[in-house]
Design goal:
about 250 residues, alpha/beta, TIM Barrel, eight-stranded parallel β-barrel
């Protein structure tokens, strides 16, 4: 059995880690590099850094930050936010990122997935999908959940896999930051349609929430932010609890 991964997520604005609900009401929770080092020390399997202020100036700041992360952190990390061209991806991979995450730009231009996967390999490409329940349909949203498209979740995830994405990072915008648990039935259903790993994001409020999405939800990894940033638990404590519940994790 492949071990389940625990992945702290750090939303970055101007070099600082922030956290809010549905990407609003942001609070500063610390230095992005120092937090990443601490999570690595605690036993995180990977990290995800998302640039939520990806202006031209923000891109330059974020690229410099990625270089600092690569110099200071010894576990794989994914970066995303504002990646809309092959050159954007190249810049961040060259700066030291292990994978890149694309979201809104891939919805606008699905061929971007093919281009990055063709040049670097599927293992470098994470397709981030933000979905929202709209009148019973799971629709894809962009721009941090603010714009709703008519693309449906299952069709888009399958297309992403076919175009070369190596993983799907799925966030339920109805649950993001609420700490009310993941929509496990949704994750379980999606896992039946894909052969690539699914990272669950959006809603972790407790160990039980994470245990449920990794077992009932069939997710391959759990992404979480608030429970780590605000001291509810540590990565090490979380893994111990998951292990006690019979979930295979790297200790």
């Amino acid at each position: 059995m492949v071990a389940k991964r625990i992945i702290p997520c750090l939303d970055v604005k101007e070099g600082r880690t922030v956290k809010g609900v549905n990407f609003v009401g942001l609070r500063d929770v610390g230095d992005a590099v120092e937090l990443g080092r601490e999570y690595a020390r605690q036993g995180a399997d990977e990290l995800v850094y998302l640039d939520i202020s990806a202006t031209v100036e923000g891109r330059n700041t974020f690229t410099a930050l990625v270089e600092r992360i690569a110099q200071n952190i010894n576990i794989p990390f994914t970066v995303g936010g504002g990646i809309s061209t092959l050159d954007d991806a190249a810049r961040l991979l060259d700066a030291g990122a292990d994978k890149i995450s694309i979201n809104s730009a891939a919805v606008r231009n699905p061929a971007l997935i093919d281009k990055i996967a063709s040049k670097y390999g599927s293992q470098f490409v994470v397709l981030a999908i933000d979905t929202k329940n709209v009148d019973g349909r799971m629709l894809i949203t962009t721009h941090g959940g603010r714009q709703i498209t008519q693309r449906e979740l299952f069709a888009w995830a399958r297309e992403g896999e076919e175009r070369g994405a190596g993983e799907i990072l799925l966030t339920s915008m109805d649950h993001d930051g609420t700490r009310a648990g993941y929509p496990c039935e949704l994750f379980a259903a999606l896992s039946k349609h894909l052969s690539i790993p699914i990272i669950a994001s959006g809603g972790a409020g407790s160990v039980n929430d994470i245990a449920e999405v990794l077992s009932t939800g069939k997710a391959d990894a759990a992404l979480a932010a608030s429970i780590f940033h605000f001291g509810d638990t540590t990565v090490g404590k979380l893994k111990n609890e998951l292990y006690k519940k019979g979930i295979e994790v790297r200790m």
